[in-house]
Amino acid sequence: MTLSVKRPISELASLPESIPIVPQIPTHRLYKRIRSKACKSTGTYGSILAYVNLLEDASSNEALQILLKITDSMHFDESEFPDAIRKLVEHFQREPESAVRVKILSLFADLAIETSVDGQQLIDEVIKLLKAEKSAKVISQGLIVLEKIGKSFTPSVAYINQMVFFAKVKLFSPSHNVQRHAILLLGVFVLISDAEKESLELIGKYTDSPDARVRAQAFRSMLTLGERGVQLPPSLYPRACASLTDDYECVRREALNMVYELGVRHPEEMIKVQDSEQEVRLIDDAFGKVCSAICDLSMNIRTLAAELLGGMTMVSDEFLHQTLDKKLMSNMRKKRSLHERSAAHFASGEWSSGKKWADDAPKEVISADSVSLMASGACGALVQGLEDEFLEVRTASVNSMCKLALKNPLFAVTSLDFLVDMFNDEIEEVRLRAIYSLTAISRHIILREDQLETMLNSLEDYSVEVREGLHLMLGACKVSTKNCLTLVVKKVLDVLTLYPNDRLSTYGCMQRIGQKHPEHCMSVTPIMLMDHPFFESPERDVEEPAYVCVLIMLFNAAQHLPAMLSLFPETILKHYAYLRDTMPHFVPRLAVGCDTKELNLVGSTGSRQFLETLLSNIQRAYSAPQARQALLKAAQDDLDRLAEIDPAFSGTANFTSVFFGAQLQMEQLQLATAGQSIKATIKECLLQLIKKCLMLQNLFSNLTIDDQLLVKQMCLRASALNLVLIVKDRSQSALGPCQLLLHIASDTSSFLQENTMLVADTFSSAILSKLASVGDPKPGRVYREILPIVQTAAPVVIPQINTNIKMCKARILEPTDNLHSSDNVIKVTAGLIAAVPFVAELENLQQSQRQDLRLKVKYPDQNVHIVVPRKRDLKKVMTEQGESESQWRLRTMVLLSHGVWTEASTVEITICLSVKPNNELELCKPVRVHFAPKPVKRGL
Fold it and tell me: What are the pLDDT digits (tens) for 108-150?
C-alpha cells in the first residue's frame, strides 16, 4: 500500500506559475485503522529503531527472529531509517553467525525495494561491509543485494562503476557462487562502452570455468549485455558451439541461445566449415547447430531448439528444405550426370576388366564428414521434432514450421504434408496448433484431393475447438479442383448433422469458401441446388441448416461472379431476401430486384459529422437548463441508434450516451440537494448514477487523458452528491460514503499531479481545495464544507469526440432465446442439476478484466446466482491472421437447479463484469431459457 506524502513547501514554491498547484488530499487518514491493525498484528513496537535496539543484547537465533519481524512489518517512519541502517551495520560487524549477516543484507534489499530509503547510501554500506567479509555465502548474498538495490532506482555512473569494480574483484574468488553472482552483476550494470572494450572478453573467459553454473552464467550475462545494446562479436561463435556438447543442461541451453543470437545478428558473416577450407554463412551454420540440438537428451533443450528454429528466417533455402528430409542431400556435393561420368572414363582410358571385385571404384575415397557443409543433425530436424514423444517439442516444432513457411512460400508447399499429418496427433493442443499453422500459411498453398481426405476425416473430432479450427482452416485455404470443392461441402454438411450446434461456425466456413472459389461454385451450382434442367424442383425448407449452408456459399460466390445470378431459380431469389434480413453478416448484398442500393455510413465521415452537430447543439443550450436536459434525453436515443448502425463508431457513441445519462442523473440529484422535489426516488437515482459511473470507469478502453480526467471528475461529483444526500437523509451511516469521497478525491489529485498539463474544472478544484484543508475528515465536517459547492456546481463539460474508444460487450451464441418455443424445455428432477451449454463472444475485454468475468443466473423467484467461470473456458478467438487481440470466446456449462415448479418458467442467463462487491455490469441482454424442475417419481 503506497502512502502519498505531501510536497515540501520549497518544492511547491519552485514550480513555474503556468502549472496549477493541485491540492494534495491526505490519504493516510483513510487507512488509519488498517495501519493500526497491521501494526498490532506484527508486534508491539511501532518503530524500526525499537526492533533494532533489541539486537544489541540478543543471541544469534533471537537476532534472526527480530530481523524476520522487521521484514514482515515494513510499516515504519522513514525518518528513522538512517539511524536504523547505521545500527544494523554495527551489528553486522560484530555478528559471528553468517546466517544473521545474510539476513541483514537481505533486509537492506527489502528496504530499497519497498521504501524510499536512499539507495546510494545502501550501496556504500554494503560494499564497505563486503570488503572485510570472508564468508562466501555472505559475499554471494551481498552481490545479490547490490543487484536488487541497483534495480530499485537509477544509480549514477559513479555508483555503477563502484559496483562493477567490486564485482570484477570478486571474480577471482575461489567460490563458484561468488563468481556466478559477480558475473550476473557485471551483465546487468556494466556500462556499454566498457563492455565492448574489455568486460565482454572478461566474462567470456569464464565460459571455460570448471563449474557448470559459472559457465552458464557467463553465457547468460553476455546475452544480457546483448539485450542492453552491446555488439556481440562473431568471435564468440566457436566458443558457443563448443559448449553445445557440454555435459550439463544449463550450459547447453545458454550456449544454444548464444548460437541463435549470433546467427541472427550476423547472418552474412562467412565462417570456415570444420575440417575444410570452404566457407558458409553464419546463419546457415547456426541453423545446423540448432537443428542438431533437437536430438538432445533433454526435453527442455529439444523444446528450446524447436522454438529457436522459427526465428532463423534468413537461412538459405537448401538448409531450410533439408530439415524436412532425413537423407543427407548428396553430402552437399555436385553430382555429375551419367554422360559426364562416361566421358570422363573414356578420356582417362581406364576400363574395368571385370576380373577384380570393385576394380572400377573411384581412386579417391573421401569421407562424407570432411566435405559436408551441413551438419547431419539438420537432416530431418523438423520431422524429428514433429515425431518427438513430448507434446512441448511437437508444439514448438509446429510453431517454428509455421513461422518459417510464412517467410518462404516454397517451404510452405513442402511442409504442407507434414502439417496435415499432425492432424492425427493424440494431443488436442498439437492438433489445434497444426490447424492454426496451416490456416496462417493458407495464402501460399492450394490443397489437393489426397490432402483433403486427411483433413476432412478430422472434422468428426469430439473437440468443438478442433472442429471450429478446421472450419476456419477450410475457409482460409483454396482447393485445386471442382471435385475437391464438392468433397469439402459434402463432408462439412455431413458433420453438421452430427454436431448441429456447430451451425454458426459452419456458416462462416461456407461463407469464406464461396468468397475464395467463385468459379468452382458456379460450376457446381445446379448440383448443389438440385436444379433439374427440364423439371421443376420442389422448394426446399429455408430453415434447414444444410440448405442454408449451400445458399450462403453460393450467394457469397455470386458477389464476386455476378453471372451466377442467372443460374438461380426464382425460389432461390426469394430465399435470398429472407436470409439477407435474418443473417446479414453471412449473406452479402447482391444486385437482385430492388435490393441494389446500400447505405454506407462511415465512422470517419457521416457519424462524426452527426455527433459534432449533436454536441454543438447541446453546447449552445448550455446556459438553459430545461433545453439542455431535453437535448440530452433526445441525444441518448440518437446515440444508442448510431451505435447499432455504425459498428466502427459504436464505442464513441456508447461512451457519450452513458456520459449524458450520468449528467442527467447528476442534475436531478443536484436539485434534490437544494430541497426541490424530483420525479424518481433519491435512492433509485443514486443507484443509477453509481452504475453509470462504474460503466464509464470499467467498460471503455482507449480513453485519452482528457477523457480519463472527465470520468474522474464525474465520479468525484457523484461521490460528493452521494455523501450530501445520505447525510441529509439521516437513515444510514455516512462514514463509508465519506471515505469513498476522500479516496476518489485522492485519486483525482494524484492524476492531476502526474499530468500537469491538465486543468480541473471549477467544481473539482473547489472540492479538492476544501478536502485538503479539512483537518479531521469526519462525515459531518466534510458535508458542511462541500454542501455549498455541490448546490452551486456548474454543468459538466461536454466530452470531445474520440473515435478510438472501444466498449466491452458480449454476444450470447448459445443457448438461444427460446421464449416462444414451448417444446424446447430443460427438464430435470427437482433438486438435481441440469448442465446448459453456454457459449458467448466478448469484444474489447481487457486482459486485466478476465478475472472479473461472471455469469448471472436469475430465477423466476428473483433469486440471483453469480457464477465464476473457469479461466481455461475463456480463450481468444482465432482468425485467419492468428489470435484476435480484442475478441474472446467463453465456452462453459451453466448449472441450473431449483425446487419443484408447477410448469416451465424462464430463467435468465447473462454475462457481466464484477467491478465491485454486489456491483455487476451486464455486458449484454440476458437470454431466457425454459426450465422445468419435476417432482421426484416414487416407486410403487
Answer: 998 888 887 888 889 999 999 998 889 999 999 999 999 999 9
Contacts with 688 (C-beta within 8 Å, 6 or more apart), sequence order? 661, 665
With vertex at residue 274, the alpha carbon angle to CA 271 and CA 280, rounded to the nearest 5 degrees, is 35
Contact 291, 304 (CB under 8 A): no
Size of the chain in residues: 940
The one-letter amino acid at 471: H
Distance from the Cα of residue 781 to its chain's centroid? 46
Q: What's the CA gap between 244 and 296, in Å, rounded?
A: 10
Distance of CA 125 to the CA centre of its chain: 42
What CA dihedral angle connects 812, 813, 815 and 820, to 10 degrees?
A: 90
Of 712, 661, 667, nearest to 688 by C-alpha is: 661
Of 187-191, 442-446, 671-675, 864-868, least confident by mean pLDDT is 671-675
Q: Which run of H or E residues covers position 697?
A: helix 682-698
Q: Is the peptide bond before 625 cis (omega within 30 degrees of 0)?
A: no
As a whole number of angstroms, the distance between CA 449 and CA 447 comes to 7
**First-last CA distance in the chain:** 66
Q: Find, among 753, 381, 802, the residue nearest to 612 by Cα.
A: 802
In this structure, the number of other CB atoms found within 10 A of the CB of residue 251 comes to: 23
Cell of 123: 550501496
Closest CA to 30 of 73, 72, 1, 6: 1
Q: Which long-range contacts (CB under 8 A, 24 or more apart) does 561-569 make?
A: 561/518, 561/519, 561/521, 561/522, 562/590, 562/591, 563/522, 564/518, 564/521, 564/522, 564/525, 565/590, 565/591, 565/592, 567/522, 567/525, 567/526, 567/531, 568/525, 568/529, 569/529, 569/531, 569/537
Place of cell 538448409: 319
Q: Taking a C-beta distance cutoff of 8 angstroms, is the pair 300, 253 a contact?
A: yes
| pLDDT more than 70, % of the chain | 86
Q: Would residue 358 be called left, alpha or beta, if left means φ above 0 and alpha means ψ between -120 and 50 degrees? A: left
SS3 state at 928: strand
- Report strand pairing: 927-934 vs 825-829: parallel
pLDDT 10s digits, 635-661: 888 888 888 888 888 888 899 899 989
Q: What is the C-alpha separation between 398 and 403, in angstroms, rounded? A: 9
Which cell numbers hold the place of 861?
A: 423467484
Please give the Cα distance from 590 to 588 (Å, whole number).
Answer: 6
- Alpha carbon 664 to its chain centroid, in Å, reads 37
Sign of CA dihedral 35, 36, 41, 44: positive
Residue 421 has which C-alpha cell? 499429418
Instruction: Name the helix (H) or strand (E) containing 514.
Output: helix 503-516
Residue with the larger pLDDT of the pair 448 and 367: 448
Helices (H), 755-870: 762-773, 779-791
pLDDT higher than threshold 60 for residue 340:
no
Question: Within 13 Å, how many C-alpha atoms sit on residue 859's CB side?
Answer: 15
Q: What are phi and psi of 832, to 5 degrees?
A: -90, 180
Residue of 206, 199, 125, 135 lying closest to 161 (CA atoms): 199
Burial class from Cβ neighbours inside 10 Å (0-12, 13-18, 19+) for residue 70 reads: buried
* CA 650 vs CA 11, 398, 481, 638, 639: distances in Å: 45, 39, 42, 12, 9
Q: What SS3 class is residue 181?
A: helix
> Which residues are paired to 639 by β-bridges?
none
**Helices 176-189 + 212-227 axis angle, to 10:** 0
pLDDT digit string, tens, across residues 382-425? 999 999 999 999 999 999 999 999 999 999 999 998 999 999 88
Buried b (16+ CB within 10 A) or exposed e, 152-172: bbebeeebbebbbebbbebbe
Residues 283 and 271: their CA atoms lie apart, in Å, by: 10
Question: To which residue does cell 416462444 refer?
Answer: 820
Residue 932 backbone dihedrals phi, psi, to 5 degrees: -135, 95
What burial letters (b/e) apply to 826-852, b meaning 16+ CB within 10 Å? bebeeeeebebebbbbbbbbeeebeeb
Distance CA(703)–CA(508), nearest Å, equals 33
